[in-house]
């Protein structure tokens, strides 16, 4: 019982989660998918496959501080991989005569039950921590400043995460010494030590690391204002040489690339078939009735790896020689009456779903800029080029966060770059879906900078 109440890893939780999920995928298969057929071969294949996929996708690496949205993203990723696994089994083992439609239904049912199970355990543990004070970790913080105060407040105001903060040590004016800290950690049976890098010298950090290692204490560091410590660093070994990677990009992972490209193809195909197939002729007639010129407007923009491509839109302006040099501004005389409507509702962007289908763009990603603007911003805006590590998108996190349309000041482009980099470093399929939903809501409500 003590292992559940105060142990370092809450050791039984992960094995229990494995057993629950394996029971679900095997139980649903026996009751629904196999329908009286011998389940032995299927159960062995699918159970081993599930475990291997879970290790690969880090499906069970859910911690007390993991956000629900991240758990849901893990479920979606694991479910897609599991669907492919079951399809692979049906292709390799024809004797069971398992067909595609039942496989999809089986996978969706398993995913639903596993999601319910996972969130039930997650919230029951939170309730257990709040109501009974169990499954907790005792913490201390070494160093006093704004960031450590914020962490202390987080511990105290969120008991559902199971952190019991005991003390913050202040080294300013020699109020405390490391010996005081070490004695307190041992006497009070502290589990985790949090250190502010900016408050400690290199020799003190080395001493704390040795102490934590020798006394089996979890040691974590709070970044200071130095930018490198605020990154999601990846620690790797080249032979025996440790190397830190400054920026991790989820879309460099081959599985994530397949998931995102598959989603792009599916989503763009749906829009092209069910929306653009009938909307394009209507918009074309309206554009032609008001002004002479082509229905579509083609513009060179920079995409993935800075490569230029032709970006398509419904034409919203009268033909003019400055279209490739200057963005539309508020009250721009070049914009037609039809153009004002399709720009306000973002209908003018819909032809870019062909760019997505052809592979030049993604549904969600950093918005591509005109080539002339890209060259200008690359010279004056720090980290602007980071946006080209992934494919550009029809919509993006920056656009739903208030940074769409005309760049009126440097503050606009700096804000756009900040959100784009966050998206690149924190991509998930769930985040893409959230951005798409919010884009649709914004289009219906209308936006001030949609002109």
Structure overview:
The chain has 451 residues and is α/β, with parallel strands linked by helices. It has 3 domains: 2-132, no CATH class; 137-230, Response regulator (Rossmann fold), CATH 3.40.50; 254-445, no CATH class. Helix content is 52%, strand content 12%. The protein contains 15 helices and 10 strands. The strands form 4 sheets. Strands 2-1-3-4 form a 4-stranded parallel beta sheet, sandwiched between helices. Helix 2 (13-33) packs antiparallel against helix 5 (100-132). It is flat, with a radius of gyration of 27 Å. The chain starts with a helix and ends in a 6-residue tail after the last helix. The model is unreliable at 1-9 and 226-230 (pLDDT under 50).
């Amino acid at each position: 019982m003590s292992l559940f109440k105060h142990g370092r890893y809450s050791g039984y939780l992960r094995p229990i989660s494995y057993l629950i999920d394996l029971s679900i995928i095997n139980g649903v298969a026996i009751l629904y998918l196999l329908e009286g057929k011998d389940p032995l071969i299927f159960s062995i294949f699918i159970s081993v496959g599930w475990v291997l996929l879970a290790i690969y996708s880090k499906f069970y690496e859910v911690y007390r501080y993991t956000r629900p949205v991240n758990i849901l993203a893990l479920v979606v990723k694991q479910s897609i991989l599991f669907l492919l696994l079951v399809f692979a089994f049906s292709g390799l083992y024809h004797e069971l005569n398992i067909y595609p439609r039942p496989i999809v239904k089986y996978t969706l049912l398993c995913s639903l039950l596993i999601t319910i199970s996972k969130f039930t355990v997650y919230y029951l543990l939170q309730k257990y921590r709040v109501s009974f004070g169990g499954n907790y970790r005792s913490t201390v913080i070494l160093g006093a400043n704004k960031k450590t105060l914020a962490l202390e407040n987080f511990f105290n105001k969120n008991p559902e995460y199971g952190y019991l903060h005991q003390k913050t040590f202040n080294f300013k004016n020699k109020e405390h010494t490391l010996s005081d800290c070490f004695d307190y950690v041992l006497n009070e049976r502290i589990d985790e030590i949090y250190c502010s890098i900016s408050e400690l010298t290199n020799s003190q950090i080395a001493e704390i690391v040795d102490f934590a290692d020798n006394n089996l204490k979890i040691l974590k560091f709070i970044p200071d204002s130095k930018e490198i410590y605020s990154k999601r660093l990846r620690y790797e070994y080249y032979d025996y040489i440790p190397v830190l990677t400054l920026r991790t990009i989820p879309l460099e992972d081959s599985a994530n690339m397949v998931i995102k490209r598959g989603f792009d193809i599916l989503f763009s195909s749906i829009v092209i078939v069910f929306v653009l197939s009938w909307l394009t002729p209507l918009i074309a007639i309206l554009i032609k009735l008001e002004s002479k010129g082509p229905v579509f407007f083609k513009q060179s923009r920079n995409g993935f790896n800075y490569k230029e491509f032709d970006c398509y839109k419904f034409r919203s302006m009268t033909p003019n020689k400055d279209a490739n040099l200057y963005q539309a501004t508020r009250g721009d005389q070049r914009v037609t009456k039809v153009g004002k409507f399709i720009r306000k509702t973002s209908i003018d962007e819909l032809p870019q779903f062909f760019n997505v289908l052809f592979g030049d763009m993604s549904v969600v990603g950093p918005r591509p800029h005109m080539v002339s603007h890209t060259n200008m911003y690359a010279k004056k805006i720090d980290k602007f080029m980071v946006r080209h590590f992934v494919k550009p998108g029809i919509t993006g996190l920056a656009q739903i966060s208030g940074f769409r349309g005309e760049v009126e000041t440097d503050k606009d482009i700096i804000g756009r770059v900040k959100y784009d980099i966050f998206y690149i470093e924190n991509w998930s399929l769930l985040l893409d879906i959230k951005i798409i939903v919010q884009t649709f809501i914004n289009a219906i409500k209308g936006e001030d900078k949609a002109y």
